[in-house]
Amino acid sequence: MPVTPSLQSRRAQLPAGSELTEPPPARLAKLPAADKLARLLQVAKGHRRALILTHDNPDPDSMAAAVSLAHLLERKAGIEAHVGYGGIIGRAENVAFVRVLRLPVSHVSQIDFSQYDLFGLVDTQPPVRNHSLPARYRADLVVDHHPLREESLLAPFADVGGDFGATSTMLVEYLRAARLEPSVEIATALFYGIKADTRDLGRETTQTDVDSYLWLFPRCDKQLLGQIEHPELPARFFQLFHTSIEKAKVYGTAIITDLEEVYSPDLVAEVAERMMYLEGMKWSLAYGTYRNQLFLSLRVKDRRMNAGRLIRELCDDLGGSSGGHGSMAGARLPLSGSASKRKALKREVVSRFLEAFGVSEERPVSLLSAQDT
């Protein structure tokens, strides 16, 4: 029999003593890991099947954390738990990540949401809208290292807004508090999740990230890690990077590139990251089209600016979703109408970012013709 999806119905079906009679703590993020774990298990108590969702087009940090949360719920709460994602897993490293570690993740098109009575979001939050939880369901569990969105606190369990460089770090904290030894596959997934999201502990890293990284290091499989980090790449990957260089324009200390149509939206972030290596750059913006949506990725070196806040301010009125944190952020905007309207939207987006960067729109220099200074 399908489980009734209504939140109130699900609460009514809980066994005696397990119903939540008081609101959750306002800021779980400030509590010790043991207290968070206790709250998590309290919320999970009495449920039968959990569905944990990553953000759409998930990266390793999101998938590692989701798989680890599902594992924790199965082992410590006795709940059957599955992991789902929307969009695609397209980047070669991410495809290898799932394949090599045999991660049990399923596309949402294969999932019957009515079969679950507990829902979780990992590495994203309800109001961000870059996830595939249908509007008729509410998230019971929200675990995310990105800045807090106030609406997330409506979830019975919301560990959001803490001082972490990766969501995988948060799951390591839970596992350690539960004295639960991860499998080699989960340990390797979490290790790579932290490694990738903090750029080898070199970006927005906290001491907790370092401690988790060192705790995982002897537990992960270095051979599997090598297969993930150095996969074979398809020809279209190099074609896309050729386009990114050919289209890149330098505006003083900012570099912006139009990738046109991309075969995987997560490659937009990879290009934005790579463009920041250009000498003298403080800002990098890459954008590309995928299935009638415009994907943007922003990188910032200026510590006075917050990339996540900036991209929300510039893109929220354009629809879609946006978010991020200090030095990196992304957005997904709907594209519709004629080709001229789509081009106009791109021009508007670029103009907004250039103004925010404080650089002139006039006389940009092609990357191919830029001279070393």
Automatic annotation (TrEMBL):
Coiled coil: none annotated. Residues 1-11 have a biased composition (Polar residues). Gene3D superfamilies: inorganic pyrophosphatase (n-terminal core). Residues 1-26 are annotated as: Disordered. Residues 51-194 form the DDH domain. GO terms for molecular function: nucleic acid binding. It comes from the Bacteria. Residues 255-345 form the DHHA1 domain. This is DHH domain-containing protein. It comes from Corallococcus coralloides (strain ATCC 25202 / DSM 2259 / NBRC 100086 / M2) (Myxococcus coralloides).
